[in-house]
């Protein structure tokens, strides 16, 4: 893979950052969130590496009367199998349904591990299109940057495409699908459990880290989605990376992104350079937001530069 393709892959995943967290812990521990809701949280945030064997994103699952509903499957077939083994530590029921939150490799390349038990692998049409376009390239990239520690991975694509505002009942558990309107990437979806008041959101949602924006996402739509989620007042929010969080954190992210977007938009119109805009943004926002994120300083620079480029499109 040439350097341009590597940079594209990193950029789309949203992980070009100086704040990559190196963690060699590869234990797939299950954390109980509610009576029937569990999380498997990756201790690594950032790039796939030989040390983390490509495992750099979270998965969540719901145990229903008729099987397990799994939200995101990790970034390789081997990781998917580790997730499957972790699920078996709390239930003998098989994974019957998989929801892929979006098309970035670290959230769906593990689909193959569940092909023997699932009845449906679910995503949006836009996400499926991206998966088919970049799937083979992403497998090669993950294998390259992890020195092959991800092992072989078969591409298993979603079999059921979602429509906007769809509601389903999975084995007695009511689920509502929320579209982020391409906020993070084309076809992002979130999963809302109205009875449990739990939101599962892939990379649309963040906790300890700055919001993950990308060049093929829609920042204004991401902001509006975050405000809408906060208004639902979930008791807990499960993210694609990092620990579980609260609606207060989601509103924090929306407020931050809104402030930066408005500043960049205004200053771009007045002919200011990205460097000038960054100085203004940091002066205004770092005192408030700097202590609230683990990666504010490097990421606020990336946010400003990316938002500036988006003004030009």
TrEMBL record:
Q: Which InterPro entries does the UniProt record give?
A: Metallo-B-lactamas, NDM-1-like, RibonucZ/Hydroxyglut_hydro
Signal: is it a keyword of this entry?
yes
The residue ranges crossing the membrane are none
- Every Metallo-beta-lactamase domain range: 56-241
Organism domain of life: Bacteria
Note the PANTHER family from the entry: ACYL-COENZYME A THIOESTERASE MBLAC2, METALLO-BETA-LACTAMASE DOMAIN-CONTAINING
Protein name (record):
Glyoxylase, beta-lactamase superfamily II
**Originating organism:** Flagellimonas pacifica
């Amino acid at each position: 893979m040439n350097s341009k393709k590597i940079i594209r892959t990193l950029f789309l995943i949203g992980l070009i950052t100086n704040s990559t967290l190196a963690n060699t812990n590869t234990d797939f521990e299950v954390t109980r969130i509610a009576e029937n809701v569990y999380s498997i949280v990756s201790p690594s945030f950032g790039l796939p590496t030989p040390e983390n064997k490509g495992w750099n994103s979270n998965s969540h699952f719901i145990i229903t009367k008729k099987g397990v509903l799994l939200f995101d499957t990790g970034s390789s077939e081997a990781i998917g199998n580790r997730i499957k083994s972790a699920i078996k530590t709390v239930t003998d029921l098989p994974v019957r349904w998989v929801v892929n939150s979006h098309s970035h490799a670290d959230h769906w390349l593990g689909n193959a591990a569940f092909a023997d038990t699932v009845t449906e692998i679910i995503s949006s049409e836009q996400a499926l299109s991206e998966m088919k376009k970049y799937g083979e390239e992403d497998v090669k990239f993950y294998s390259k940057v992890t020195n092959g520690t991800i092992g072989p991975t078969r591409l298993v694509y979603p079999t059921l495409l979602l429509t906007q505002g769809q509601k389903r009942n999975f084995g007695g558990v009511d689920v509502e699908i929320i579209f982020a309107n391409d906020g993070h990437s084309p076809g992002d979806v979130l999963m809302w459990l109205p009875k449990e008041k739990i939101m599962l959101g892939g990379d649309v949602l963040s906790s300890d880290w700055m919001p993950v924006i990308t060049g093929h996402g829609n920042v204004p739509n991401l902001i509006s989605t975050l405000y809408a989620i906060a208004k639902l007042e979930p008791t807990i929010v499960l993210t694609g990376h990092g620990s579980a969080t609260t609606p207060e954190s989601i509103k924090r992210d929306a407020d931050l992104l809104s402030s930066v977007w408005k500043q960049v938009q205004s200053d771009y119109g007045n002919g200011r350079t990205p460097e000038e805009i960054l100085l203004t943004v940091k002066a205004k926002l770092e005192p408030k937001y700097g202590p609230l994120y683990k990666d504010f300083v490097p990421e606020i620079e990336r946010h400003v530069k990316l938002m500036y480029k988006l003004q030009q499109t």
